[in-house]
Amino acid sequence: MSVSLASENLVEVDDVAFGYGDRAILTSIKLRARRGQVVAIMGSSGCGKTTLLRLIGGQLKPSRGVIRVAGEAVAELDRVGLYALRRKMGMLFQFGALFTDMSVFDNVAFQLREHSDLPEDMIRDLVLMKLHTVGLRGAADLMPAELSGGMARRVALARAIALDPMLIMYDEPFAGLDPISLGVTGQLIRRLADTLGLTSLVVTHDIQESLKIVDYVYFISAGVIEAEGTPEEIRASALPFVHQFVHGEPDGPVPFHYPAPDYAQDLKRSGSRA
Question: Which of 52, 112, 131, 230 could be joined to 137 by an S-S link, Cβ 3.0–4.6 Å?
């Protein structure tokens, strides 16, 4: 991948913090995503990965710091400005989130009908084009209940790119997929970035599949960026947290045991209560 200048960053996250009440989720996040780049955001469950996507999308506001998308400070936009920016973003939810009472065709057409004044014949051509891109043009008349999990994810992806966004955010796109569907989804993410120039932010736990397709990786732990780098740098990292995550080790910086008193002492206390 080519090295770009800072001015080509589509997403910039600077010293961002966020929490719920007294519970801090993110304490100091700095992240960059260039135009056309695929960036993975990784970390253990509950570390704030999806929260970060919601901050970038403007559903949440940071308690500190600035998030810019295409040069615009997201949290400073008014309602009209935020909605205009969101029309340039696509979102792929973990399990597709298709409208169950609409056909595949109508699910993909929904965005175009809601946010454009295009005639129906042009909408039809665009929907079939998007479905063809994800390999499901022949499934246009099916209902979501007739789709496999992998197919539903691909329909949701076609819907996410219906308005030709500049940024697409994926929340656990590989969750629950069989090996074939997982590989297909990964290659679609990469191909869409390359052919359409999409900037892609991928929140995922599937590190092996992700390292095949992404340009850069950020690891979140304890509210900060614990590590970052290219796939090659991440694979070679000696940082204990990264090494544990990459190799799926059961114990390490993320411990196997939940914090508890000394086991022997705990057993003695149990015996004294008997």
Answer: 131
From the number of C-beta atoms within 10 Å of its C-beta (0-12, 13-18, 19+), residue 47 rates as buried
Whether the Cβ atoms of residue 89 and residue 57 lie closer than 8 Å to each other: yes
Q: What is the pTM (predicted TM-score) of this model?
A: 0.83
Beta carbons of 188 and 164 less than 8 angstroms apart: no
Q: Compute the distance between CA of residue 242 and CA of residue 224 in angstroms, rounded to an integer.
A: 14
Average pLDDT (109-134) is 92
Q: Does domain 6-83+216-273 have CATH number 3.40.1350?
A: no
d(CA 252, CA 244): 6
Domain boundaries, the chain: 6-83+216-273
- Rounded to an integer, what distance in angstroms lies between the CA atom of residue 115 and that of residue 113? 6
DSSP H or E run through 109: helix 104-115
- Does pLDDT of 62 surpass 90? yes
